[in-house]
Specification:
six-stranded mixed beta sheet, Rossmann fold, five-stranded antiparallel beta sheet, Chorismate Mutase Domain, subunit A, 446 residues, alpha+beta
Length: 446
């Protein structure tokens, strides 16, 4: 059946896209424009849908008249007898960021956060939107995930986003609105050619469609073929990641056995599955090649945005970028107080009497210094044994990298007494069984 702006056809699409659409609450992302007005109105005409239907308007706060738009959307919803909720954004654009991209990210984040348990979000993306998306992705040099354009259904937050009119031409939606006499908003930003999508819509598509009238449908069909190919690549990546998985981490030796193209594919899928933004081609190549080829113990990192991939002890770890803990240096008089609070939320050091303690109380100075690592620290972990670099000890013990960054070190003058509660230098260890022994405990932060 050919896609069309008809309530029964739209409902059939919902049922095709998601099994729960027959009973789940439905939320339409409602801008007040012609497309979302058509979608909301088409669904409101269905008695089986209306009782579980609502509209959600996102006020971006970018224009002085945005409050007026909220009122206009409420009037339309009253006419359609559909309840409406509103969320207002406070957008912050970093230097070099596109306002279009920031507004889109903020809008989807707000929509995801506003969804109720079990609710499905519906958007009014249509056939020409799909054409625009494919062309924009081509011009940006996107890979297969980008060229697959917009899927009919996708995860969003704790739920799903459905696009039931993705195959319907824009003209049909607008004609339906006109026949119902519904008033629609027109965002003046849609006329600004500085936005890439607007320039494409105003300057490029009219010429393209005048020559190839069926371009929107044929390009959408191509996007479908690309999406099918991407599904196969995702299935392959899932299998490769499963073989390389070590808990939430990936084994470096296992990844190295993969051909480079499959390695890239597996890494891209692994990162995307975590819900994080996939890095650009240059950084992905850096992870797939240079990071995996680095010498053991180098612990290289590749970062983008708020995400980083780090290699440590033969595994890749995916994590958030965190600000480095500031260096600190404190004076501690353990004979006055056996406890010392560390700055920056790093927990507490404590000395306790213990038959198995590794510090001789008589040898410990009345005043010690506690500070973070500076590099080059050494200690002798056992009597008669060799001096070892702290770096090599940490690597051999596979101490997590995040812990190494803020490890508290105890010094007597220039001499290292203890590295947190991991090692004590032999100089301060008890020489006789009857010695008064102390145990150093680091109460780590949660």
């Amino acid at each position: 059946m050919r896609p069309r702006a008809d309530p029964a056809w739209v409902y059939s699409q919902l049922l095709r896209l998601h099994a729960q659409a027959a009973t789940a609450p439905l939320c339409v992302a409602f801008s007040g424009g012609a497309d979302s007005t058509a979608l909301l109105g088409l669904l409101a005409e269905l008695p089986v849908v209306r009782p579980r239907l609502r509209a959600l308007h996102i006020d971006h706060g970018l224009h002085a008249q945005s409050r007026t738009w909220v009122s206009a959307c409420r009037r339309t919803c009253r006419i359609l007898k559909v309840p409406m909720a509103t969320r207002r954004l406070r957008l912050a654009r970093a230097r070099g960021q596109s306002l279009e991209a920031v507004a889109r990210a903020g809008r989807y984040a707000a929509l995801a956060a506003a969804l109720r348990p079990g609710e499905l979000l519906l958007t009014a993306h249509h056939l020409e939107d799909q054409l625009e998306t494919v062309l924009l992705q081509l011009l940006r040099g996107a890979g297969l995930p980008g060229l697959a354009a917009m899927p009919g259904v996708m995860p969003l937050g704790a739920g799903f986003l459905l696009r039931p009119v993705l195959g319907v031409p824009r003209a049909q939606l607008r004609a339906w609105v006109q026949t119902r006499g519904l008033k629609c908003l027109e965002d003046p930003a849609n006329a600004d050619p500085d936005f890439d999508r607007n320039y494409l819509r105003q300057q490029v598509l009219p010429a393209l469609l005048s020559r190839w009238r069926g371009a929107a449908r044929t390009v959408a069909r191509s996007a479908g073929h690309v999406a099918a190919a991407q599904e196969l690549l995702d299935a392959l990546a899932c299998a490769d990641v499963a073989r390389a998985a070590d808990g939430a981490q990936l084994s470096v030796p296992a990844l190295r056995t993969l051909p480079l193209d499959r390695r890239r594919n597996a890494l891209r899928w692994w990162i995307a599955r975590s819900g994080r933004r996939v890095p650009d081609a240059r950084r992905l190549e850096e992870i797939a090649v240079a990071l995996l080829a680095a010498r053991a113990g180098a612990n290289p990192v590749v970062s983008w945005g708020q995400t980083r991939v780090q290699r440590h002890a033969g595994r890749l770890t995916l994590a958030e970028v965190r600000a480095a803990t500031p260096a600190f240096e404190l004076t501690w008089r353990p004979r006055r107080s056996r406890k010392l609070a560390l700055p920056h939320g790093l927990g507490q050091l404590q000395l306790v009497r213990s038959a198995h303690g590794l510090i001789d109380a008589a040898a410990l100075p009345a005043q010690v210094t506690v500070r973070t690592r500076r590099g080059g620290e050494r200690l002798r972990p056992r009597l008669g044994g060799p001096s070892r670099s702290l770096k090599s000890l940490l690597q051999q013990a596979a101490v997590p990298l995040a812990e190494r960054q803020h490890l508290p070190l105890v010094f007597a003058g220039d001499n290292l007494v203890a590295a947190a509660d991991l090692w004590v230098d032999a100089r301060w260890q008890p020489g006789t069984p009857a010695a008064h022994r102390l145990r150093l405990i680091w109460h780590r932060p949660a």
